[in-house]
Design a protein that fits this description.
about 75% helix, Growth Hormone, Chain: A, about 400 residues, MFS_trans_sf, mainly alpha
């Protein structure tokens, strides 16, 4: 297909296929862990509220720890920091598995899942490699960012399906166990590909990304968008479970990610129209509008098939919105702090996912799964209001990183 030629040009660069393969293996579990934890905990303890609270706690801990891990990566290199941090996270996942299996007190679930907060931002490290390799070529970097977002969506597409299959076909802890093995294996492969790793600077100039002009408004938008993702996942799992079709939940969530993945690849194959700052409000508006479809499908039909189709269409706005957001983060992050800057954006998303998971779980348990779809619509509307406010206040800044 002619529109995919920009991607072929990317992977002609030496070493790009090797680091991408390892990164994809390490990234796949990010679509597995939360679904596996929800299925494992809700099945063992009979409470979606508890499952949502545990995953929310882990994500909140990640929001606090991840920027510190990313700062260490910028200062000491990906290979020296990412692998030890991954090993700690894997131990936390295995501890959660054992606590659930042996019916340990609820507080041990929170503590174990919080230990997974040291998981490095694999997508951010990959984007940092592309930014290093494609310095001075913004169109190629746009394509690379779109590929990375499509890879994220691919992992969210395959991860829930794999997690639901493993937990249902074998035993409830199987999703967490396999995810841990994949994470550690992929990180070993990724970090041993040193040729494409960005060089470590003896001194990192510039202010912290959190204090850079234009970054805080973007983080607020990320927080609201994260709530969309967190609520949608928990509510969809509960909606499928209420119909006695929990095993189909992974497929339904995968369709949403498939819509985003396809849209992301197409978005990266075309030249961006105008600056990213001008495109962001339009992308968020599309996301907010399309998210009304799952709510309508659940409320008017009650059909899991109709819901799946609605989520497929709704997902098409996700990747363009995330690519545009990450492009703005790259533009506005001080030089030498790219891992930290992108991890702050992911931290905002994780914080939002934590809030969305908790609110979605509460809504499902106290109202209904259908009512739960009001949560992502509300969160998307907040993201739209924030992006419009940012645009109206003219947060135009001179890029500090290229």
């Amino acid at each position: 297909m002619p529109q995919l030629s920009p991607y072929r040009r990317l992977f002609r660069l030496p070493g790009t296929r090797a680091f991408t393969a390892g990164n994809l293996i390490a990234r796949l579990p990010m679509g597995m862990f939360s679904v596996s934890a929800v299925v494992m905990i809700a099945g063992s303890r009979g409470s979606y509220a508890l499952a949502g609270a545990v995953t929310a706690t882990g994500l909140a801990a990640t929001a606090l720890v991840a920027p510190w891990i990313a700062r260490l990566v910028d200062r000491h290199g990906q290979a020296r920091v990412a692998l030890p941090a991954t090993m700690i996270a894997v131990l936390g996942s295995l501890c959660l598995l054992l606590c659930v299996h042996h019916d340990a007190p609820d507080w041990t679930l929170f503590a174990s899942y919080a230990a997974t907060a040291t998981t490095p931002n694999t997508g951010g490290m990959s984007r940092a490699r592309w930014a290093h390799l494609l310095a001075g070529d913004p169109e190629a970097l746009h394509t690379a960012n779109s590929f990375e977002q499509a890879a994220d969506e691919l992992c969210f597409m395959l991860g829930p399906v794999l997690a639901a299959f493993l937990c249902g076909a074998f035993f409830p802890e199987a999703g967490t166990l396999v995810g841990s093995v994949l994470l550690l294996t992929g990180m070993v492969l990724f970090t041993t590909r040193r040729a494409t790793e960005p060089p470590v600077r003896a001194h990192i100039p510039g202010k912290a990304p959190l204090r850079a002009p234009g970054i805080p408004p973007l983080l607020a938008v990320c927080l609201a968008m994260g709530a969309v993702f967190g609520a949608t996942e928990v509510v969809t799992l509960a909606f499928a479970d209420a119909q006695g079709r929990q095993s189909a939940a992974g497929v339904v969530l995968a369709l949403q990610a498939a819509g985003s993945c396809g849209a992301g690849l197409l978005y990266g194959a075309v030249k961006p129209a105008g600056p990213a700052a001008a495109r962001l409000p339009w992308c968020v508006a599309a996301m907010a509008g399309l998210l009304a479809l799952p709510l309508l499908a659940a409320a008017l039909t009650g059909s899991l098939l109709a819901l799946a189709a609605a989520l497929l269409v709704a997902g098409m706005a996700t990747a363009p919105t995330m690519v545009t957001t990450m492009t703005l983060v790259q533009e506005r992050t001080p030089e030498g702090r790219l891992n930290e800057g992108m991890t702050l954006a992911v931290t905002g998303l994780l914080g939002g996912i934590a809030c969305g998971s908790a609110i979605g779980g509460w809504t499902v348990e106290h109202l209904s799964p259908t009512a739960g779809y009001v949560v992502p619509v509300t969160a998307a509307s907040v993201a739209l209001a924030l992006s419009l406010r940012r645009a109206s206040n003219r947060f135009t800044v001179i890029p500090t990183h290229h």
